[in-house]
Structures are given as C-alpha cells and as structure tokens.
Write a structure and sequence with these properties.
The chain is of the alpha/beta class and 252 residues long. The protein has helices at 3-13, 50-56, 62-67, 71-80, 113-118, 125-136, 163-180, 190-197, 203-206, 224-229, 234-251, and strands spanning 97-98, 104-108, 145-149, 184-188, 211-213, 216-221. Strands 1-3-2-4-6-5 form a 6-stranded mixed beta sheet, with helices on both faces. The longest helix is centred in the last third of the chain and has 18 residues, at 163-180. It binds uracil. Residues 108-112, 115, 121-122, 126, 149, 225 line the site of uracil (URA).
Length: 252
C-alpha cells in the first residue's frame, strides 16, 4: 500500500478524510516543524458534519492535523505511519511509555533492537541504566515519568536518525509534549537535544545549563548508551540530573 493510501486509511479511521488533506504525505523531507502548541487543545471532533470541517479547515497541513490529535488518534497515526523510510526497516513503531500526565519527560534518540522487538523505549542495556538514573533521583518509569524518543522507528543498524526522518517524526513528539504538558524535559544525548532545540551543537556545550523548550525547562545530558561506553562521564550526568531536580524544586 502506498504512503498516501496508508495515511488516507488512518484519516478515514479517524473520520478526518477527505475533508482534512495532507500537504506533505509523499515521503519527502518536510523541514523543521513549526513550534507546537503546548496547551492541550480540545479533542478533534469526531462527528462533525463533513461540510463543517471542509469550511473550517479545507487544507490543514500534516503538522496542524497532528497538533490537534488526542492520545488514541495520535497512537493510531503513529502506528500506521510510513512517512519516512525508517518504517520499512523496523518491526514496529515505538510510541512512548509512561504517565500521560507526567511532570518529567525523558527523550532519547530512537529505538534499538530490544525496543524494536518489544515496542517500548529503553528496555535494553541503556534502558537499565536509565532506570538506575531515574532511581538515583527517586523517579520510576511510569510514575510521574514519561519516556519517548525523537524517532519512533528503529534506524537500521542503530545508526543516527537522518534529518528528514527526524523532521517527519518530530510532530508526533511535539504533540505528545503538548498532551503531557511536562514540567521539565530531559534530553538524553545529542540527537534528542539538537532536535528539540532546532540547532546543531555539541553535547558538551549544551549540558550543564538550563535550556528552554517552548516555555518548558529543558535539561540536556549524556545518552545512557554513551555512559555505558564512557562510564567516566557518569559524574557529569549525575550533576545534570541534580540540576534537573533543583530546577523542578524551583518550579514547585
Ligand atoms: N536508545 C534510545 O535513544 N532510545 C531507546 O528507546 C533505546 C535506546
């Protein structure tokens, strides 16, 4: 089934087709997405007469469409997504896991082999370290914590996701952030950090200070997989986590 038909099928399932057309559903790079609304907007009306939607929103972009979805529709759209080339090479999409009203959002890069097999982020060796990092600051997966990735499909051979793949997938994470409304975001590794910031930089230059993601404090630290390879850096990650805790305390 081609990309357009797959997306059409999802939109039909959501009662959004044919009134809401996708502009960028042809698998091309779509550029860096615009800033998402961080307030949870009203759920998409599922039973509005066709002509009402046609008049109100004759030509909604894919980003706009995603930015208005609620959890069930968003999950369905991610499950059916074939917008970028990653989906063809992975077993399943890995949406994200945890408390959908969490104060804490941790964002990694993309699923690895274990995550691809199980459908949940950070379940391999790096995930075990992440769980330990969470425990070190008295947090627990699923308990006031949500864990997601920049891309929802495993890149082949665990390579870094490419710019067009990140651009295609980011609207989903942006909508997750809009729905969760976390009080703090912790980016794990360079890909998560630079994708959220929308600019290139080294991890070393980004960590250790507070950033901002559309009004939400953003902390940046090393990816757990990197820490497994470079355990000497764990003390810096610990400093970053403490900064995150202090930042959260300051918000209360
Ligand atoms: N690395 C990531 O960035 N995300 C995962 O889910 C697993 C490993």
């Amino acid at each position: 089934m081609c990309i357009v038909n797959r997306e059409e099928a999802v939109l039909r399932e959501l009662n959004l087709y044919p009134q809401w057309r996708l502009r960028e559903s042809n698998g091309k790079a779509i550029g860096h997405p615009a800033a998402p609304p961080l307030v949870a907007s009203a759920p998409v009306q599922m039973s509005v007469p066709a002509e009402t939607i046609t008049d109100a929103a004759p030509d909604k972009s894919r980003e706009q469409l995603i930015s208005e979805l609620h959890w069930p529709e968003l999950k369905a759209m991610v499950r059916a997504c074939t917008v970028c080339k990653l989906r063809a090479g992975c077993t399943q999409t890995v949406f994200g896991v945890g408390d959908e009203k969490a104060d804490w959002l941790f964002v990694g890069e993309g699923p690895g082999a274990d995550e691809d097999a199980l459908g949940e982020p950070f379940v391999g060796q790096a995930g075990k370290l992440l769980d330990n990092m969470l425990a070190a600051i008295k947090l627990k997966r699923g308990n006031n914590v949500y864990i997601a990735n920049i891309v929802k499909c495993r890149p082949p051979g665990n390579r870094t996701p490419e710019a067009d793949e990140i651009a295609a997938c980011l609207p989903y994470l942006q909508r997750q952030i809009g729905l969760i409304q976390p009080r703090i975001i912790v980016a794990l590794g360079k890909t998560a950090a630079t994708s959220l910031l929308g600019r290139e930089a080294t991890l070393g230059s980004l960590r250790g200070t507070l950033h901002d993601y559309h009004g939400v404090p953003l902390l940046i630290t090393y990816h757990p997989a990197y820490l497994l390879r470079s355990p000497m850096e764990k003390s810096k990650a610990w400093q970053d986590l403490r900064l995150a805790v202090e930042t959260m305390k300051g918000l209360s």
